[in-house]
Amino acid sequence: MAGIFDGKVAIIQFPGVNCEYETAAAAMSVGLEAGIFRWNDDPALLDACTAVVLPGGFSYQDRIRAGVVASKDRIMDKVSELAAAGRPVLGICNGAQVLVESGLIPGIHWERIDLALAPNVMSDREGYYCRWVFLRKEESGCMWTGSFSEAEVIPVPIAHAEGRFITNDELLAELKTNGQIVLRYCDHRGKITGTFPVNPNGSMENMAGVCNREGNVLALMPHPERATWLRQVPEDLPGAWGRKRRRAAGDPGAMEAEGPGQAFFSSLLLHAEADPSAPGGGIGKGGEG
Amino acid sequence: MRRFEDKVALITGAATGIGGIVRDVYCMGADVVGVLDPLRFGDPRGGKGQQVISIARGVVEGIAQYGNPLGVPNLGGDIVFDSGYDENCLVNVVAVGLVRQSRILRSRVPSDAADRPYKMILVGKPTDDSGFGGAAFASEDLAGEEEANRGAVQVPDPFLKRVLSEANKKVLELAWRRGVVVGFKDLGAGGIACVTSEMAHAGGFGVNIDLDRVSLAIGQYSPAVVSCSETQERYCLAVPDEIVDEVLGIYNEDFELPHIYHGAGAAVIGEVTGDGVYRIMSGGETLCEAPVDVITTGISYDRSRKSRRRIFEEPEFDPDRSIHDDFLTLLSSPNIASKNFVYHRYDSEVQGRAVVRPGEADAGVIAPLPGRSVGLAFSVDGNPFYGIIDPYQGGALAMCEAARNVAAVGGIPSAVTDCLNYGNPEVEEIFWEFAEGVRGIGDACRGIGLISHEGSPIPVVSGNVSFYNQGESGRSIPPSPIVACVGVVEDYSRSRSIRFKDEGDVLYLVGEPLDELGGGEYYRVIYGTLGANVPEADFLRERAQMRTVIDMHNHGWVRACHDVSHGGLITALAGMMIGENGGGSLGFTLNLDVFNGCGLGPETILFSETGVFIVELPGGIERDVLALCARNRVKLFKLGSLVSRPGLEVTAGGARLAAWDHGELQEAFMTGCRWIFGIERNE
Hints:
The structure holds two protein chains of two kinds. Chain A is built from eight helices and eleven strands. Chain A is of the alpha/beta class. Chain B has two domains: 74-83 and 308-677, CATH 3.30.1330.10; 105-300, PurM-like C-terminal domain (Phosphoribosyl-aminoimidazole Synthetase, Chain A, domain 2, Alpha-Beta Complex), CATH 3.90.650.10.
C-alpha cells in the first residue's frame, strides 16, 4: 500500500466532507496528481505526499462545533507533523475550521487555539450564506499565494455559516506583523470596507485566509475549487473576471481556461517545482515576514 | 419528484422531503447532481399571515440544513404565495442524477438469484419507530390533532447519508469489478416490509426476512414497528453470497458506520428464495407468510368526477390608474419580487458544475462533463391560478412553461417529471381537477414533442401524486400540478443570464402577446380578481417558438433571453434590466406602436401572460433573424435597442405612458419580499 500518495496532493476525506472530488479535480487542473485519503487509512501513506488539503463540507456533522471533532482525529497528528516539517497544508472552508480548531492556524503558540471561526454576522440576516465574494491578496510570504500578483483581486464563492475569523487585539497585531493575513474580503475594485456584503461574515479585518508564520499552512474560508475554471465564474459578476467570462460566451474551449481560484493550486505547483527533491517541494518561504 | 405536506415539524419535514427523493436517485447507481424546490405557501398578508411566514422560514431552513451538508447543489425552484395554501403548504423536491446507461441499477432481486444464493442486506441508520404509519399519514386529512401525530415525521440525517453515499460507491465498484449484479433500493414508505417484498416481487422471487437481525435504535419495538417504520437513511441490497462479507466490510469497517453513528451499520437480514413466498420471522416465529404478489399488488379505484361550474369574469380597466405606480406595486408583490436571498441560503456551487445559478436565468444550467460542451438545464413550474380557472390549462401550461424555461437557455426540452398536488380525490370536482391536469400535461408533452426527434413526445420519466391536501376547514388547495423539465444544451457556453448585456443590442419578442391576463399577477395584485382569459396552451405555437429560440442559441446570436410569464412583458423587461443580483446598467424604451396590428390596449400588452420570449441579439443580423422566424413560422416583433441610461420607459403614439428609473425598479424588485423571510435591511 505504501506509496500511493507519493508525489500526490492528498485530499483528506473525513466523514461528512462533501467537496473532496472537485478539490482533487482543481489540484489536477494545474498538472498535479491528487488522491482521496479516507480518514482511517494508514497515516504513513502521507509521508511522501506533495501537499495535504482538507476539503470543505461538514466533517463529523459539525458536532459540538464546526471542525472540532475532525481536529482531534488521529490523522491530524500526521498532518501536524507534516506541517511542522514544512509540507504545504491547505484547509478550505470546513478544512479551515479544522486547522483553526487544531491550533495549526495561526500556529503562533504550539497547539494553542488562538483563533476562532465564529458564526457569521451579517447586517440583515443570519446563518448559512452562499455567494460569490471578492478577495484581495495581502503582503504575505504564504506559499499558497506565491503565484498571485501584489494586491491581486479575485472572485471566489463562499458557502458557510461559521466563517468569521476572530481573535484578540494582541494576536491580531501579531498576525499583521507576521504577514499571516493572506487574503481579505474586498469589493470588485479591491476596496476593503468592513460592512456587509463586502465583508460577508463580519470577519475581523475582513480576514478570509490566514496562514501560519512559516507560510506553508493556509486556512481559507472561500472555495477556490469552485472557481478553478472560467466556466464556473458567474457572468453577471462585476469586474475583470466577469468581463472575461462574458467574452468567453459561445466558446466552450475558452470556458475551460483557468479561473480565478486556480491560482492557489498553481502556487502549490510553483512551490513543488522550486525544490522537487524534497517531498512537497521546498519549505515555505514565509519566515517572519 | 416528491411532495411533502409540512404538517408536523417544519425543518425536519422539509429535510425528509429532500432525503427521500435523493435516495431514490442514488439507489439507481447515479450521482445526484442537483435538487430543485418548488414551494407553495399561504398568503403572508392574510389572516394566517404570521403562521405562513413562520412556515416559509422553517421550510427554507429545513432545505438548507439538509441540502447543504449533502453536497448536492441547489439548481433552482420557485415560490408561490396564495391564501389557498394557508392551511396546507406544499414542499416539492426534484432530484436529478447522472448515471452511465450501462450501469443503471434496478430496484429488484437480480435474475442471477435463480442460479446462485443471494442475501438481503440492510444498511444505514438503526431502525426505530419514526415514521411508523407514515405512508398512511401522508394521505390523511389533518384533523388538527398535531400532537397526536408527532412521531410521524422521520428524522433525516444528511451526514450519515453523505457517508453512506461514499460507501455505496465503493460497494458498486466492487460489484462491477467482480462482475456480479446487485439489486439496490432505498427504504421509503412501508420500511423493511415494503422494500424487501417489492424487490422480491420485481425480480420474481421470494424472500425470508429475519427481524431479529435488524439493527435497532435504543428502545423496545414490536415486530410490526420494526418491519414497517420509516426510519430515514436506509438502503436495502440484494447481493450474491460471494461478495456479502466484502460488502459488509466496506460499510462496517472501511467507512466505520457503527463507529461514526451510534447503531448504524450493515447486516444481512434475510435471503432470497425461489418459491415466490414472502416470509417475516421474529423470535423463531413466522409472522407473515404469503405469496409475494398478493402483498405488492396495488388496489385499483374507480373514482367519479364532475366538472366544476364557476363563472369567471374579466375586470374593466380603470383609466385613472397609474401604470407607473401599479407596476411598482406588482414588481414588489410576493410572487414577483426577487427571492435571491433564499437561493443564497442554499449551496448552489458544490460539485463545481454550476454554469447558470438559480435565478440568473429561466433555468439553471450545469456542465456535467468537464471538457465537453454539453450542458443540462433544469426548471420547475406550475401556476396554481391558471388551474383554478381551468384545471386542464393549469396542467398544460405548467408543462409549457417548464419547457419554455429550458429553451430560454438553449436547451432542448428532453424529459419531464411531475408532482401532482391536489385535494381530496373522493370529492368529484377535485378528482375532475386532477384528471384534467393530467390530461393537460399529457397533451402538452405530445403536442410540443421532442424538438430533436420529430413525432416523438417528451417523455414523462417519473412523478408523484399527492392527494388530500386540505386543512381543518376542509378547503382544498388550488389544483397544483408542478412540472420539472430537463433540457439538453448543445453548448453550455451559449447559455446566458437574463441580464441586459450590451448597449446597442436589439430586443425582439418571439411570439405574439394575446389578451391573456386571466390568472395573472396583474389582475390578482391590482384588481384583486383572477379574471377569465387564462392563457390558452397552443402546443404548435409553443414548439415553433422554442425551436426558434434554440436555433438562435445554436447560431451563437443570443446575448440574453427571458420568457414572458408571471407579470407579463414589462415585468420580464424589468427583470432583464436589473438582473438576479441587481446592478444592471442599461435601459430600454418600449414603444407599444410595434403592436399596433394586434388590437390590444397598453395594459394588455404590458401585463398579458401569454408565453413568449424576449431575446437580446446583436445588431446587423436582422435579415437572418427574420428569415429564421419566417422558416419556423413564428411572429417576431422588433422592440428596439438597449441604451446606456438605466431605466425603463413605455411610449405609444409619440407620448410617454410611463417611465421608471433604475433605482425605484431595483428597490421594488430586490426588496419586495424580504420581510417575509426576515431579511431586515437592504444590501
